[in-house]
Design brief:
Layout lengths: L6 E3 L13 E2 L5 E6 L2 E6 L5 E6 L5 E7 L2 E9 L4 E5 L4 E6 L12 H8 L7 E4 L5 E6 L2 E6 L5 E4 L10 E6 L5 E6 L3 E6 L8 E6 L5 E6 L5 E6 L4 E5 L2 E8 L6 E6 L5 E6 L3 E6 L3 E7 L12 E2 L6 E4 L4 E6 L4 E7 L15 E7 L5 E9 L5 E11 L4 E9 L6 E6 L9 E6 L4 E7 L9 E8 L6 E6 L6 E5 L2 E6 L4 E6 L6 E6 L7 E6 L3 E6 L4 E7 L2 E6 L6 E7 L2 E7 L8 E8 L2 E8 L17 E7 L5 E5 L7 H24 L8 H8 L8 H44 L2 H6 L6 H12 L3 H8 L1
Antiparallel strand pairs: 1-52, 2-3, 3-4, 4-5, 6-7, 7-8, 8-9, 10-11, 11-12, 12-13, 14-15, 15-16, 16-17, 18-19, 19-20, 20-21, 22-23, 23-24, 24-25, 26-27, 27-28, 28-29, 30-31, 31-32, 32-33, 34-35, 35-36, 36-37, 38-39, 39-40, 40-41, 42-43, 43-44, 44-45, 46-47, 47-48, 48-49, 50-51, 51-52
Helix pairs in contact: 3-4
InterPro entries: Beta-prop_WDR75_2nd, WD40/YVTN_repeat-like_dom_sf, WD40_repeat_CS, WD40_repeat_dom_sf, WD40_rpt, WDR75, Znf_C2H2_type
Main location: nucleus
GO molecular function, one term: RNA binding
């Protein structure tokens, strides 16, 4: 009986790194940030991820340096636990109290211990450096809790259209001053709040929208602020008219952090980015995570060259994201216009994108809706440049169609002499674009329209090429048409049950004679292109259908009751290869098969479809979820035989190794110190060396004493045995008995008995 390895759904990457304020280490070398269910540790100079602190089982909600040990950090999570880490070595030290959020303001040890015992759920919670009070802000309320006095509470109001809602706050490290940011773009500095009715405040104003973060520097000489303007503002404390700016940081600032020595600043941005800044002078490093916009308009794609995941990034861009490194490789500016952060302003968006088979060409569609409801369209063709290792704009087609483009695909044949792109539009036409050679108007190759087609004035919804590029299938509402790209002849139309076609996919390899489609009537249909008839159909609410380019396998995602089921099948076989009920909550919106770097050699039928590719899908709530095969090996008869043989060999090796070596005592303090303590917190080498040598001497002395005791016991046993035998022997036996051994000979015999002769048995077995 064969036990199959499990296929699991795992979160591969793309978590937010801007969810909470980042934390800089005391020496400014490392940067810590909450990222999903783990804490990521980045190098502030190389931008590389040094450690993934994994252990929480739910969203990490806060990170804070340990005030009593600058090499340790606390993290708290929605799983209700607080964990202490050695973040330089990536080691979990201990798990302790229950909490939901920790403060990121530098705290005294006593105040920190008190806060860790509290279940904090407020919007903001910060403490003064002296540990005399903590301040919290939520909505229109500002409250200061004194540990030795009464509570100070203040409620703002929004009368006369004012927007006084608190958005952020920071406590001065030395003075009794609290800085608060507000929705109206103003910053207020609160003083004298230890007297309930005599508090005062001053107002700073530069931001035109809500202030998202404020932070005092460690010495209290400057105040940093940021917002939607993508500008870091540095105010001089007590000289608020003097301020410095660091503009064009790329996206709205959501959080600000300062290193304990004040040398580095770090800003978190709305596009899931961390920017490391040297004292508000220049940007020294940028750590870019997966950009998550309001929606992914393009499909999930895999760059054939870099194997990176490609999808919408920041506005007007495509992002190339490495799934193996969980890091963005680069952004490609498609629109090539400066994005203006203003609500209600219509700007160009990238809505379609496609790669050719080799990765030599990239096609993009951008659109912008005008105030008069007219649609502005641009079709752009990008050529890969070997020198810059990026894509360079080759051809721009303004107004390629008269209405929105519904589908676009390249001819996927790898050995074709011509490169072709087909686009379909709501204007009722599809167009074929072909790469042309040099023309006297142009230098180098360019793209031009080669054919315009239509079918009974119906709207084309989707299109796809066959694997060899000899057929083009285009759906016109409820009709599937099959065309020959060589002559642009309509070869046939396929009948199907009623319902508009939503997806079309050609079979591949041994299943290339099949064409599959899904309909709005919740049907999955399969046509045989050799007979031009419907091969089979089944009732399924398929939200997404896609094929694996490296095998015959196809994947269908079916949504129902708030969940999504997955079915993997071959068009030629009636039963699915793999099915998974409720693979995720919500609806799967995008998916892609990504080729593996190395092919797996799984012999299990249920997981063979993952040998060449991995399936990634995007949901409403999660990003980049792949299906992976469990690392456990299938328990087959061959595995049992091989495993037993290996186990016997391992036991022999262990026996010989244990016979040859002298084991140290298990309770050796020196060994425990060396093996279980991080290197940077160990005592000096001279101290460890002397302690280690003493432990060896003690163990050697004990071993000699034990050997002497065992020799005495064996000698006494031999004497007793000899006396017993002597009493029971007859006279004849005494005459033929061997002469008695001396003590030296008996000791030598005992030593010979202790020798390991397992090598002799292995020779006899061979």
């Amino acid at each position: 009986m064969v036990e199959h390895g499990d296929i699991r759904v795992v979160h591969r990457g793309g978590s937010k790194i801007n969810f909470r304020e980042p934390v800089l280490s005391h020496d400014s070398r490392l940067l810590l940030c909450a990222s999903g269910e783990c804490v990521k540790v980045f190098s502030s100079s190389t931008e590389e991820c040094v450690h993934d602190l994994q252990g929480h089982t739910d969203l990490v909600t806060g990170v804070l340096l340990n005030p009593s040990n600058h090499l340790q950090a606390y993290s708290c999570s929605a799983d209700g636990t607080v964990r202490l880490w050695d973040f330089t070595d990536g080691i979990l030290i201990k798990v302790q109290l229950h909490c939901h959020h920790v403060s990121v303001q530098p705290l005294s040890v006593s105040v920190f211990s008190l806060l860790m015992c509290m279940c904090v759920t407020l919007t903001r919670l910060l403490s003064s450096s002296q540990g005399e009070y903590i301040a919290s802000a939520k909505g229109l309320h500002l409250e200061v809790y004194f540990f030795k006095k009464q509570k100070f509470s203040l409620k703002e109001d929004n009368k006369k259209g004012a927007k006084n809602t608190f958005t952020c706050l920071s406590c001065h490290p030395k003075d009794d001053c609290i800085a608060t940011g507000h929705e109206d773009g103003k910053i207020r500095l609160w003083r004298n709040f230890n007297h309930k009715r005599e508090y005062t405040y001053s107002t700073l104003h530069w931001h035109h929208s809500a202030v998202s973060s404020v932070r005092f520097t460690p010495e209290g000489t400057n105040l940093l602020s940021g917002g939607v303007e993508s500008v870091l503002v540095q105010w001089r404390y007590n000289q608020e008219t003097q301020k410095d700016f660091l503009p064009r940081l790329g996206a709205a600032i959501t959080h600000i952090a300062v290193s304990p020595d004040g040398e580095l600043f770090c800003t978190a941005h709305s596009d899931n980015k961390l920017t490391v800044i040297q004292s508000c002078v220049k940007v020294s490093a940028v750590i870019q995570g997966l950009v998550k916009g309001e929606s992914v308009r393009t499909d999930l794609m895999v760059d054939p060259r870099s194997k990176a995941l490609v999808l919408n990034g920041k506005p007007g861009h495509l992002q190339f994201y490495s799934l193996q490194r969980d890091k963005q490789l680069y952004n490609l500016d498609i629109v090539q216009q400066e994005y203006i952060h203003e609500s209600g302003l219509q700007q160009f968006e990238v809505v379609k994108a496609a790669f050719d088979t080799r990765g030599n060409w990239l096609a993009t569609v951008e659109e912008r809706k005008q105030k008069d409801s007219t649609l502005e369209l641009n079709l752009k063709l990008w050529a890969y440049d070997e020198q810059t290792q990026s894509f360079v704009l080759n051809t721009t087609v303004s107004g390629p169609h008269e209405a929105r483009i519904t589908a676009m695909c390249f001819c996927h044949t790898a050995d074709s002499q011509t490169t072709m792109l087909v686009s379909a539009s709501q204007d009722g036409h599809f167009k074929a674009w072909q790469l042309e050679s040099n023309h006297y108007f142009y230098e180098g190759p360019f793209w031009s329209c080669d054919f315009v087609g239509a079918y009974h004035s119906l709207v084309p919804e989707c299109c796809c090429f066959s694997a060899d590029g000899s057929l083009l299938a285009i759906s016109f509402q409820e009709v599937v048409t099959v065309w020959s790209p060589a002559s642009w002849e309509l070869l046939t139309t396929l009948s199907q049950p009623p319902g508009a076609i939503r997806d079309l996919c050609f079979g591949r390899q041994s299943c290339s004679k099949y064409l599959l489609g899904t309909t709005a009537k919740n049907l999955l249909c399969c046509w045989n292109l050799l007979t031009c008839t419907l091969e089979w159909s089944t009732s399924m609410d398929v939200s997404l259908l896609l094929s694996d380019p490296l095998s015959e396998n196809m994947a269908a995602f079916c949504s129902h009751a708030g969940c999504t089921d997955l079915f993997v099948f071959k068009p030629s076989e009636p039963r699915p290869l793999f099915s998974h009920k409720a693979i995720c909550s919500g609806k799967v919106t995008r998916a892609v098969f990504a080729p593996r770097e190395e092919m797996l050699e799984s012999c299990e039928e249920s997981s063979q479809w993952l040998n060449r590719s991995q399936l990634y899908f995007l949901t409403q709530y999660m990003v980049n979820i792949p299906l992976v095969i469990d690392d456990s090996v299938a328990v087959t008869p061959f595995y049992l035989l091989l495993g037993k043989h290996r186990q016997q060999q391992q036991e022999k090796q262990d026996r010989s190794f244990s016979a040859e070596r002298n084991q140290l005592p298990q309770g050796s303090v020196a060994i425990k110190e060396l093996l279980h303590t991080p290197a940077h917190v160990l005592p000096s080498a001279s101290f460890l060396c002397s302690m280690f040598v003493r432990s060896l001497l003690i163990s050697e002395k004990k071993s000699e004493e034990e050997e002497m005791e065992s020799d005495k016991e064996e000698e006494s046993e031999c004497e007793m045995e000899a006396s017993t035998m002597g009493q029971g022997q007859t006279a004849e036996a005494q005459e033929t008995a061997a002469p008695a051994l001396t003590k030296a000979q008996a000791r030598e015999l005992r030593r010979v008995k202790k020798l390991d002769h397992s090598w002799l048995s292995s020779l006899l077995d061979s």
